[in-house]
Specification:
The chain is an alpha+beta fold and 532 residues long. 33% of the residues lie in helices and 19% in strands. The protein has 16 helices and 18 strands. The two termini are 18 Å apart.
C-alpha cells in the first residue's frame, strides 16, 4: 500500500523541504511532454549527492512509492520528464551537476547526470584542452549521461556514444551502490579507461533499463584533428539512395569513414531551415509542388542530403582519405563538396560576390558548417528548430517544446547497413506518415559499420484539435509495420514500452527474475522498457 505522506515526510528530512516539490503547477509541467500523456505524478524530489539517492530509494521501498529518475528531462519526442506508469515520484538529478574528474593525457572526463553538453564544452574550452566530445543534435543543455543511457548517438568518431563510456556508479533499487569495471576496486588505476574490468561486465545492463540509478560515468574524449575537413553531398532522386547507402557501407567497413554521420531527406532539411505554417495555411502535408518550391529556396536541397567529416592526423592523410571518399561517392551522388580551412577562409572572403551569384549567405553557412561544426564537439541549438516546424507562433527567447505545445514523436528503427533494407524501412515510414497527414521527416544515422539508425520525426501542433490522436495512431501503426518486417525499434517513448513484441526465448523471464531480485517492490521506474 503506497504511503505517499510517510515518504514525503522522510524525504524532506533527507533532502530538505525545498528539494521536495508537491506544488500542482510544477507537477503539471513534469506531466507534460511533446505528445499526449495521462500519467500523473505524486511529487518531484531533487537529490544532490549519491548518498541522498541511496536514502531516498530505501524510503521509497519502506513506503512502497514508485520512483522515476530523470537526468534533466529534455528527452523531447520520447517522453521528457513523464514516467512510464501513473502515480510515480519523479527523481530529478539535474542538481547533481559536477564534473568530477578530467584527464587530458588519457582523454576522459567523469561527470554526474546533471552535467550538460554545453557545460563540458565550456569546461574543455576553459582548460584550453586539445580534446573534443561527441555531441548530439539535441539541446546543448541536455544531459550527457541521460543521452547515453537511452543509447542516444552523437556526431563523429565516438558517435556510438555508449561504447565510449565506462566506470559507472550506480545506486540499485534497494539503495545499495555499485561501480562497474575496475572502478569497484579501491586504488584501481584503470577504472576510467577500461570498460570490461575483470569477471562479468554489467555496464550494458543499466542502458535503457530500470535496474539502477546511474550517478556517475566516465566518458572518453577525442583529440582535436590536425587537419579537419567537412563534406556535403546530395542525390536528386530517392531511387539513388540504395546505391549511396551501399557505397557508404564500403567506406565505413574499410575504415575510411569513422564514427556517425547523418543523411536526411528533403522534409527534414526543410524543417531545419523553414517553417511549414508560414508557407502552407492548411494542416495537410506539403504537396509535391510546395515541397519543390521550398527546396529551391535552399539552393542545395536534394531528395536526400548527407554530411561527413574527416578528422586526420596530417594534411597528407586527410587528402588521401578525401580522394578515396571522392572515388567511392562520385558515381553515387549528384553533388559533393569538401571544405578544409583554406577553402572555408576563401569562401568567407568571397562571400559577397558568391552570395550575389548563388543567393546563399555562404559566410554564415561556412561558419556554422565548418568553424562551429558539431563534428568538432561544439553543441548547437540548430536541431531544435525542426521541432517547431508546424507551430504558427512561438517565442524564440527560451525554446521549450513541452510548454510551447510542440508535437513531436520520434520513431526509431535499426536496419542493416545495406540499400534494400534501408529502403524498406523508409517506405514503411513514408507510407504511414502521409496516411495520417504528416510529412515523412526522416533521417539516417550511419552509426556502425553494419547497421544504421533510421529516425522518423512526427511533427505537429498540439494546439490543433485531434492532432495528438492522429500522431499516436500514426506512431503505433508505423511501429507495428516495422516489427512485422523484422525492424525492431531501438528506442522507445514512455507510451510505447508495451508495444515491443515478446522475445522468442526466455529473455523476458530472465529480465523479470533479475528485476524481482534487486527490486522486489518494483519501485524503480516500473514498466520502463517493458521490465517489471
Amino acid at each position: 500500500m503506497i504511503d505517499i505522506q510517510g515518504a514525503l515526510a522522510a524525504w524532506i528530512k533527507v533532502l530538505s523541504k525545498k528539494n521536495v516539490i508537491i506544488k500542482r503547477n510544477i507537477l503539471s509541467e513534469f506531466e507534460t511532454a511533446t505528445f499526449f500523456t495521462k500519467q500523473k505524478i505524486l511529487a518531484v524530489i531533487y537529490p544532490t549527492k549519491t548518498k541522498n539517492i541511496q536514502k531516498c530509494l530505501k524510503i521509497a521501498n519502506k513506503f512502497y512509492v514508485p520512483v522515476y529518475p530523470i537526468s534533466i528531462g529534455k528527452n523531447w519526442g520520447y517522453g521528457s520528464h513523464v514516467p512510464v506508469k501513473n502515480n510515480c515520484v519523479v527523481m530529478d538529478l539535474s542538481k547533481m551537476n559536477k564534473i568530477i574528474d578530467f584527464d587530458e593525457k588519457l582523454a576522459y572526463i567523469t561527470v554526474e547526470p546533471g552535467v550538460t553538453f554545453e557545460q563540458v564544452y565550456k569546461f574543455l574550452h576553459s582548460k584550453k584542452s586539445k580534446l573534443i566530445m561527441s555531441v548530439t543534435g539535441s539541446s546543448p543543455y541536455s544531459s550527457l549521461i541521460g543521452n547515453i543511457l537511452e543509447r542516444g548517438v552523437g556526431k563523429g568518431r565516438y558517435g556510438n556514444r555508449y561504447q565510449y563510456a565506462c566506470g559507472m556508479e550506480i545506486v540499485l533499487p534497494n539503495g545499495e551502490c555499485i561501480h562497474t569495471g575496475f572502478a569497484r576496486f579501491n586504488g584501481a588505476k584503470t577504472g576510467q579507461i577500461s570498460r570490461s574490468g575483470v569477471g562479468p561486465s554489467f555496464d550494458d545492463m543499466f542502458i535503457q533499463s530500470n535496474l539502477g540509478v546511474v550517478t556517475k560515468m566516465t566518458i572518453w574524449l577525442l583529440p582535436k584533428p590536425n587537419y579537419f575537413q567537412v563534406f556535403f553531398y546530395n542525390i536528386k532522386e530517392g531511387s539513388q539512395l540504395g546505391d549511396l547507402i551501399d557505397a557508404l557501407r564500403v567506406l565505413k567497413l574499410e575504415g575510411t569513414l569513422e564514427g556517425n554521420f547523418l543523411i536526411v531527406n528533403d522534409y527534414r532539411l526543410l524543417s531545419f531551415n523553414e517553417k511549414y505554417s508560414s508557407k502552407n495555411k492548411g494542416e495537410q502535408p506539403l504537396t509535391l509542388l510546395e515541397l519543390e518550391k521550398l527546396k529551391k529556396s535552399l539552393k542545395w536541397g536534394g531528395a536526400w542530403n548527407g554530411e561527413g567529416a574527416l578528422l586526420s592526423a596530417s594534411k597528407e592523410q586527410g587528402i588521401s582519405t578525401r580522394k578515396r571518399v571522392q572515388k567511392l561517392l562520385k558515381n553515387n551522388v549528384s553533388r559533393l563538396i569538401f571544405f578544409d580551412e583554406m577553402k572555408a577562409k576563401a569562401t568567407k572572403i568571397l562571400d559577397l560576390p558568391l552570395r550575389l551569384f548563388t543567393g546563399i549567405d555562404l559566410k554564415k553557412t561556412v561558419n556554422d558548417a565548418f568553424y562551429k561544426s558539431t563534428f568538432l564537439g561544439i553543441p548547437t541549438m540548430n536541431g531544435i528548430n525542426s521541432i517547431y516546424w508546424r507551430k504558427k507562433s512561438f517565442s524564440t527567447k527560451a525554446l521549450n517544446p513541452d510548454m510551447d505545445n510542440c508535437g513531436i514523436l520520434w520513431i526509431d528503427a535499426i536496419a542493416p547497413f545495406e540499400g534494400n533494407s534501408v529502403s524498406i524501412v523508409i517506405q514503411i515510414m513514408k507510407k504511414q506518415f502521409l496516411r495520417y497527414g504528416f510529412e515523412p521527416n526522416i533521417g539516417i544515422n550511419c552509426v556502425t559499420e553494419r547497421s544504421v539508425y533510421i529516425t522518423g520525426e512526427i511533427l505537429y501542433d498540439r494546439n490543433i484539435k485531434d492532432n495528438d490522436k492522429k500522431a499516436i495512431k500514426c506512431y503505433k501503426k508505423t511501429f507495428k509495420e516495422l516489427v512485422k518486417k523484422g525492424f525492431i525499434p531501438n528506442r522507445l517513448t514512455v507510451n510505447s514500452m508495451d508495444l515491443l513484441p515478446s522475445s522468442n526465448d526466455d529473455y523476458d523471464t530472465f529480465l523479470h527474475k533479475l528485476k524481482k531480485t534487486i527490486d522486489p517492490n518494483n519501485i524503480l521506474s516500473p514498466g520502463r522498457y517493458g521490465i517489471y
